[in-house]
Predict the 3D structure of the following.
Amino acid sequence: MKRYVSLDVLRGITVAMMIVVNNPGSWSAIYPMLRHAQWNGCTPCDLVFPFFLFCVGVSMAFALARYDSLNAGALGKIFRRGGLLYLVGLFLAGFPFYNTDPDPSLTFWQNWLVWLRDVRLVGVLPRIALCYVSASCLALWLRSTRKLAWTIGILSALHVGLLLLFAGPEGAFTLEGNFARKLDLAVFGEGHIYHGYGIPFDPEGLLGVLTGTCTVLIGYITGQGIRKSSKEGQTVEDSPVGLSARIFVQSAALLLGGLILSIWIPINKPLWSVSYVFYSAGWASFVLALMIYLIDYKGWEKVFFPFKALGMNALALFFLSGLLVIINWTYIGWDYGAVFGDTELKSLLFAVMYMLLHLAIAVVMYKKKIFIKL
């Protein structure tokens, strides 16, 4: 079976962008395209996370190919990997596992309970874990592309229905009135969710797992098409250029669908709205088609080699990038913003340098044949 290097490259480019977006030199000086939309809308920054979930789905098509049903062996693999991803996410959320800003009037253990009360229970890696588990189970249970397409429609309708049915007076798609916020508050409480929007609201909360699963399933269906082509490889349609053309058409259909849906349902990353699912998957399909054309058809693999290396240790290096930042602020206290300055260009310069550091680590790991699978 032909291996499409473009899949590793796309995953590597996505993680590189995740590192750049998450680690600016100064949070007060960021170019608009590297900021998330305040609520509705979609900047290039807002495409990074769905790109990764799309890549998870494409990779699943190959990883799950050995299983012909949702049997005990498959379930064990799926839940082991999903559980590991979730625990790694909790590790990052909780590290260094004690209150780093203790109240001097409290004992160590009292301060530890305060820390425990505020540990975030959802986030990027937990969202990946939950969507991976749900999408993998659905893919092996339903098997056929048609059934999976219907499932994407059902999950999308359920997401919209819940938002509309349980909307607050402020509106179904508003920060204050959305049902996703109510659900997370009821399940986790205020202390265990994100507070960066001014009020407790988590952009990686539970309701978004429904539509996040749709993003993974779109990637899975795309991956199934790639796997079929790599098996056959006898016709023009099954060649890299033919496959690229088919995925380009898919990207156009998804983008158009997302834009049409946005007339009624705003494109909104924090809610992972249905229009956002199709719009972001459209862009992910477009970039994947472009990578297949440039790398697997034109033979530009050497140009993209560092991203291939990063893509083959994607989650491990994403974890490392987050851990190093926490270690710096907890134990070292180096203010790189003060060193690089408070301008957009210098802030971006630090983010790119930090990403290049991880790119270099990825290349070294690749050459030493070190591959860490999370």
Q: What stands out?
A: Residues 208-232 form the longest helix (25 residues). The chain has a mean pLDDT of 93. The radius of gyration is 21 Å.
